[in-house]
Structures are given as structure tokens and as C-alpha cells.
Amino acid sequence: MIKVFYASVALAALVAPANAQDVNWTGYYAGAEVGAGFSHPGFEGGSTVSGSDFNESAFVGGVFVGHDWQSGQFVYGGVASFDFLGFHDQTAIDPLFGGKTNSYTYDLDWVASARARAGFLASDQLLLYGTAGVAVTRVETSADFAFGGTETVNKTLVGGAFGAGAEYVFAPNWSFKTEYVEYLFDKVEVANSIDFKPRFGTLNFGISYRF
């Protein structure tokens, strides 16, 4: 996924014309984005399930709004985003004696963030930037026990987000971006001594209209 991000940045740099007209980056913008998500939560449990693989790739997509200020070659501002996540029914099995099993399920449906971003202009039309801020997500977990009983936990978590991206103005008032953001949250206890610690990344491609 990191290789795809760097390739996107390189492509944007190659298509940026050397004689590009000046672009004013100051102002509001709004847009839509789609891409891929990469879920890699921490999972802690009994000795038979420790280290179980909940890693998953899925489609993501959403919308964003923001505002930038330009000062010479530097651009800074803030952005808020809301993305739907396709991380559903990630399940691990805990084998027990006698062929019975406990199973644990982990779902993520959406994430929202409010982030600062700042960067520099590689050309009048190409912005390279970093971003960081706070994020909110909804986690749904469940545990089905072999000897009877189910525990379900639905919890809204506040965590952090950080990443980097590139944005290219390709027409008056229109820009294209590619951006990778990593999200981290505190753990959720789904059952006694069974914890998930949500963590995932999103690689998005977006189109913005700049007002």
C-alpha cells in the first residue's frame, strides 16, 4: 500500500507542467474520496488465540471538507472527513478440547476525523503535505462461547490519525489528491481477558472542488 502511495505521488509530479499558472491555495474546498482500507487490529486472548490474524483489506469511501491558507511556498489548514469502512465479520476461532470452539467477531463500519494538514508546494499546482488529528469510530465486537452464551460490545472510540498525501490542481477550482492515513484507537474488551485494539489505514483517491 505504501508503494502505491509513492507511485501516485510520483505520477502527479510527472504530469505537473513546468510552466503552470499560479494557483491560489487559500480558500474552502469539498470533495469525495474512494480507496482501500487495511485493518490490522491488536488482539489479546487465551493462549490459543493470541496472535490470531484479523488483518483484512476492504473498500472505503466518503466525503471531506476543509480550508487552506497559503504563505509563499507553504500551505496549511484543516480538514474534516467521514468514510464508510468495509471491515465486516472479521472472525477468529479459539479451538477447545472435544472439538468445541469459541469465536470472536470484530466489525468497523465508519470513521470520522478532524485533522490539521501542512505542506509545501513542489510546483504551483502540486502540494505535498502531512496530516494529523483526532478520529472517531464505531466498533462492534462479539464473543460466542462453545459452552453457551454470547457477549456483544458496541462502542464509540476516540483516537488519533496521522498520514501524508499529495494534491494536484488539474483545472481551475478542481484538484486531485492521493492520501494515506493511519488510525489508532484504545482497546475494547469483548469478554473477560479478550481485547481488541482497533488500528487500520486508508489509502484514498479524491476529487476536490475549491471555492
Automatic annotation (TrEMBL):
Belongs to the Omp25/RopB family. This is Outer membrane beta-barrel protein. The keyword Membrane applies. Residues 1-20 form the signal peptide. The lineage of its organism: Bacteria, Pseudomonadati, Pseudomonadota, Alphaproteobacteria, Hyphomicrobiales. It comes from Mesorhizobium qingshengii. Its main location: membrane. Keywords: Cell outer membrane, Membrane, Signal. SUPFAM superfamilies: OMPA-like (SSF56925). It is found in: Cell outer membrane. It holds the Pfam family OMP_b-brl. InterPro entries: Beta-barrel_OMP, OMP-like, OMP/PagP_B-barrel. It comes from the Bacteria. The keyword Signal applies. Residues 9-211 form the Outer membrane protein beta-barrel domain.
